[in-house]
């Protein structure tokens, strides 16, 4: 089978595949790569683009691809036979995770690198609730803060802590506790709306990242929805089990300019709410 025929067969694979020369130029890409590139989901769009140059530009945009760039150069220079890594990159306002596999391929006696991208974003989701997990929360907050700082805009977070999860587990069993967490996750998604990113940080805690450059009306609406109470019920209608949660808010730049400062402020606000005080 000829090498050109082997490259053509890559069109039938579900992963994005491209071949780059020693200068980093994309000399071949499969159908899946082209389809994903059209929607802005890849670093180098198509044949003729330079993958190395796009990696350098992506680093400036906040993509964590410095390791990928170093690995590609090492493969192209013969320092490594292959390279594998996972990276996060903003796409359509959300972070997506990709695994990239780089290996050597000889084309017309010239050293090239073949790259295969696999979207592994599903691995960044909480298995129980289906929500994005802590890694996704951290990445999305980082993206929101970067955009807000660059544009002089606003953003913020909401921390939600489920009340009495241990009591539910001890009294009714962990199955009921799991059902309560899933019910609360659905309630949070409904209250937050499509413009917010709702995540499960871990255990009984959830995090919501507000959109960048929200207007005052939007902020008031979201806050009012959450302050009206986070409540849901699970189990049979004749014997429902009620679930509630405490919430805390932190806004950029009012309550902090870093992710750590915002998290501390939101946590403090949430514990004040849990103690029975109003949300600050």
Q: What features would you describe in this structure?
A:
- The protein folds into 2 domains: 3-120, 2-Layer Sandwich (Beta-Lactamase), CATH 3.30.450; 125-274, 2-Layer Sandwich (Alpha-Beta Plaits).
- The strands form 2 sheets. The chain has a 5-stranded antiparallel β-sheet.
- Helices cover 39% and strands 28% of the residues.
- It has helices spanning 3-9, 31-38, 51-60, 66-76, 134-151, 165-172, 174-192, 216-227, 259-274, and strands at 16-20, 26-29, 82-91, 94-107, 110-119, 155-162, 197-202, 205-209, 230-234, 241-252.
Secondary structure layout:
Blueprint lengths: L2 H7 L6 E5 L5 E4 L1 H8 L12 H10 L5 H11 L5 E10 L2 E14 L2 E10 L14 H18 L3 E8 L2 H8 L1 H19 L4 E6 L2 E5 L6 H12 L2 E5 L6 E12 L6 H16 L6
Helix pairs in contact: 3-4, 6-7
Write down the overall mean pLDDT.
83
Got a strand count?
10
- How many helices in DSSP terms? 9
Radius of gyration: 23 Å
CATH superfamily of the largest domain: Reverse transcriptase/Diguanylate cyclase domain
Number of domains: 2
Distance between the termini: 69 Å
**Major beta sheet, strand line-up:** 2-1-5-4-3
- Low-confidence segments, given as residue ranges, are none
User: What is the oligomer described by this structure?
Assistant: single chain
By CATH reckoning, the class of the largest domain would read Alpha Beta
Protein structure class: alpha+beta
Shape label = elongated
In helices, the fraction of residues equals 25-40%
Question: Would you summarize the structure shown here?
Answer:
The chain is α+β, with helices and mostly antiparallel strands and 280 residues long.
